[in-house]
Specification:
Distance between the termini: 32 Å
Number of strands: 2
Shape: globular
Oligomer: single chain
Length: 298
């Protein structure tokens, strides 16, 4: 595995701060995850690896996932603009006009990519037109995959855009709510097809956006109208039940939804019918997936 360019660069950089480092099989797994997270971006790999003298590889992976600000160093022999990923992105950010900046920071709410239709529904206060998306592609803020009709954002750029969006809490809440509404509605629209037994195409559509679906449901569990979450729970449960993801992932997802719903003090009292019914559905799916995951392990 050390022959892969991204892994090779990471290991070479680690050797600068930890000369005796040797890549074990367990280390290779973590390094691969770091390389995938930063999508092989050379400077990001070097910045992450520079922490190997003070943090474990697993800690480097965790910190890189959590904060773009982690990828910075105090190297004196390189230009300041190359000492952090934020400095690199700041320079690129200035190449966008105001409308492009507004659109991109809103697109950061998407996880695992998005379609043009989804962008048009979720982005608010500015038009996510095909022309504007094409401009963001040309300026390397988006990647476009015509065969799949999807756009992707590099994870580090997505974190950068999310930071920009957080500067305007009102806009951030509005966009996340639109995102949640879009994907919970997408799930709700599939229930009739699920009951009719038309499953393959429906589940494939959910699978392509499962990260967005999970994020949308979690927002609905904490911030959105309860009816939104209620319509999404059963289709999401069927997705995991039919084996399009592991039972363990299903248990984790429904545990998170249940915990979020139970902890939200702004919800109506637990005695309301909708709250009870929604929580009952969540707990039933969680229990099912927990049982199946346990049976598979034993």
């Amino acid at each position: 595995m050390a022959a892969y360019p991204a892994i090779k660069l990471f290991v070479e950089t680690v050797h600068r701060v930890q000369p005796r480092f040797e890549l074990s099989p367990d280390d290779a797994t973590v390094v691969t995850r770091i390389c995938r997270l930063v999508e092989g971006m050379p400077l990001a790999l070097e910045l992450a690896a520079s922490w190997a003298d003070s943090l474990s590889l697993s800690e480097i992976l965790t910190e890189t996932r959590q904060s773009l600000g982690f990828l910075q160093v105090e190297w004196r022999d390189v230009p300041e603009r190359q000492r952090s990923m934020r400095a690199v992105f700041d320079a690129s950010w200035q190449r966008l006009n105001e409308a492009e900046q507004v659109v991109f920071c809103q697109l950061s709410v998407f996880r695992g990519g998005f379609t043009r239709e989804a962008a048009g529904q979720v982005v608010t206060g500015a038009e996510a037109s095909p022309q504007r998306l094409a401009t963001l592609v040309r300026k390397s803020f988006l990647q476009h995959y015509p065969a799949e009709s999807r756009y992707q954002i590099h994870e580090l750029l997505r974190q950068y855009g999310a930071e920009k969006l957080a500067y305007d809490p009102t806009l951030e809440a509005a966009v996340r709510d639109e995102h949640s509404s879009y994907y919970c509605d997408l799930l709700g629209q599939q229930e009739m097809g699920i009951k009719a037994g038309v499953l393959h195409d429906i589940m494939h559509a959910i699978q392509g956006d499962i990260e967005n679906v999970r994020a949308g449901c979690m927002w609905a569990a904490t911030e959105g109208p309860l009816q939104r979450l209620e319509q999404a729970v059963n289709p999401l449960g069927w997705f995991y039940y039919r084996g399009y993801a592991s039972f363990q992932q299903g248990e984790i997802t429904f545990r998170g939804l249940g915990d979020a719903l139970a902890a939200d003090e702004t919800r109506p009292p637990s005695g309301t019918v909708n709250a009870q019914r929604t929580m009952a559905r969540i707990l039933a799916w969680r229990s099912l997936f927990h049982t199946y995951a346990y049976d598979l392990q034993t």
